[in-house]
C-alpha cells in the first residue's frame, strides 16, 4: 500500500531511484543557467526534446538590453535544439504546464521551486536547479529520493469570504517553513473534492514554503473535467490505504481570511488582526493566485468601485487573460482603476515591474514575503484574492465580506 | 572530502533571496553574485567568505531554485556549508556545483576553527567533534568530481 509519490516513483519512501522524466522545463532565468551547464557538460544532443519546454515568464517583456540579449540567445537555442518555447506573453511556466501539458501520474521536473504547483493534477512534480535540469535534458532522467509523506486532511467546505489561499496559509502556518523538508504533502480527505482545479493549484503551489518537494492531489472528477477542457483524456487515481509520516487536519468550514506578515510566510494572522495596515501597493497574480477564478473573484468585489491604492493585476497566462477579456472580468478590473500587466511572474521576485521602494508596503497574493524580495526596504503581506480586493478598495488591509 | 576554515555563523531559514537578491540574477558574470552575496543581510559578509566555512541554522537555502545562490558561495571561496537541515533544492544545487554541504548540528561562534570530513561523516568545531549525516554514494561521487558537469564528462 503506497502513497501517491511512492506509486508514481515506483519505490518505497527513503529509496534512491533513477527515473525518466516525462516533462522537464525551465524559464528565462533558470534556462540560461541550464544552457550554460549543458555547454560545460559538452552536451550536443538532447535525449528527448519533445519532453522539454522553455517558458519565458520571469522578466517579460525584457526590461533592459542585457535581459533582451540573454533572452534572444535562449530563444535561438530553443529553436536549434527543438525545444518548444512559450515566449513572452504566454504566461507563467506552472500555469502554462497546467493547461493540458501535465497529466496525472507523470514525473515532472521544473527549474523553479514552485513546480510543486503541478501536483494539483496528480503528477509527481518537483523543482530542481539548472544543473540538474541540464542533466535531465541531456539524459532524459534524474535521481530522486522517494519522499516520506505528510497528509493534509481536508474536511468540510469553505465558507464566508475564505478561499483556497487562506487554506494554503493555514497549512503553511501549521507546518512551518521547514515542517515538511525532504517530504511530500498529499492533500486528502472529503474536503478535497469540493476544491476546484484553480484552488488546488493554489494549495499545491505553496507546498515548497513548508520545505516539501511535492504537494499532490489525487486525480478525480475535477481533474478529469479540467483536463478535458484542454482536450486531454485522463483517469482518476484511487487512493490506497497507506502510512503517512504525519497527518495535519484542516476543517475548511473553520477557515477565515488570513494574512502572512513580513518577513515570514509562516507568521500568519487573521486578516482582522492586521486590518488597517497602510498599503502602498496591491498585487494580484503570480503562480499562486493569477488564475481565471482569482481574477473573476477580484472583479466581483471591485466592480463598479475605485481602488484607493496602486493596484497591479497580472494574469497567470494568455489563456487566463483571454478568458478574462471575453467574460468582461478584465474590463471590470481596469474600470476600477487597476493596472494590468502582461502574463508573467512580474513583481513577485522584484526583478521587473511593480518593484517596491524603501519603506513601501505591499499586500500580495503571491507565496513569498522574504525581506527585500520585491525591492530593497519594502514589506510584503500575503493574502487571498478577496482580501487583496477589499484592501485595494480601502487603501489599507481590510477583511473581505462573505460572498 | 575534507575542508577547513574559520566559521561564518548564520541563523535559521536563510533564504535564497538573502543569499543573492533577484535584482542581481540577470547576468552571466558569476563574480557579480559572489560580490553581492548576503548583501541584504550584512553588506560586509561577502568580504569574509573566502576560505570560510558557513555554519548556518535550520532550513538553510530555503526559497527559490536559483542556482546563483550556491554559485555565489562557491565563487566567493566558501569551503563548505554546515547546517542541521537544508532546503532540498539548495542541497542538490550545492552538490551539483561542487560545494560541500554537511548536515550536522553543531555549537559554533563566528571565527571558530571548523573542519569536516564528508567521507568519515564528521564536523569539528574548535576540536569538538560532531556526527554528520552521510550523503548518498552518488552525491559523494558528484562532489568528488567537482560537480555534476565534470562528473558527467567523466562518466560519458
Provide a descriptive summary of the structure in words:
- The complex is a heterodimer of chains A (403) and B (156).
- Chain A is α/β, with parallel strands linked by helices and 403 residues long.
- Chain A has 2 domains: 1-255, Aconitase, domain 3; 258-394, Aconitase, domain 3 (2-Layer Sandwich).
- Chain A has helices spanning 4-9, 30-40, 65-81, 93-98, 130-139, 164-175, 197-205, 221-228, 271-274, 286-289, 292-302, 318-326, 329-335, 385-394, and strands at residues 16-20, 23-27, 52-55, 84-86, 107-110, 124-127, 141-145, 149-155, 184-188, 214-217, 246-251, 258-260, 268-270, 281-284, 310-313, 339-340, 361-364, 379-383.
- A 7-stranded mixed β-sheet of chain A has the order 13-12-18-17-14-15-16, with helices on both faces. Chain A has a 5-stranded parallel β-sheet with strand order 4-3-2-5-6. In chain A, strands 10-9-8-11 form a 4-stranded parallel β-sheet, with helices on one face.
- In chain A, strand 8, helix 6 (164-175) and strand 9 form a beta-alpha-beta unit.
- In chain A, helix 6 packs parallel to helix 7 (197-205), helix 11 (292-302) packs across helix 13 and helix 11 packs parallel to helix 14.
- Chain B has one domain (2-155): Aconitase, domain 4, CATH 3.20.19.
- In chain B, helix 5 (137-145) packs across helix 6.
- In chain B, strand 3, helix 4 and strand 4 form a beta-alpha-beta unit.
- Helices cover 28% and strands 20% of the residues of chain B.
- With 156 residues, chain B is of the alpha/beta class.
- Chain B starts with a strand and ends with a helix.
- The A-B interface holds A 16, 29-30, 32-33, 36-37, 40-43, 59, 64, 66-67, 70, 111-113, 127-132, 134-135, 138, 143, 145, 177-178, 181-182, 211, 213, 264, 349-351, 368, 370-373, 376 and B 13, 15, 17-18, 21-23, 25-28, 40, 58-59, 62-68, 70, 85-89, 92-93, 96-97, 136, 138, 147-149, 152-153.
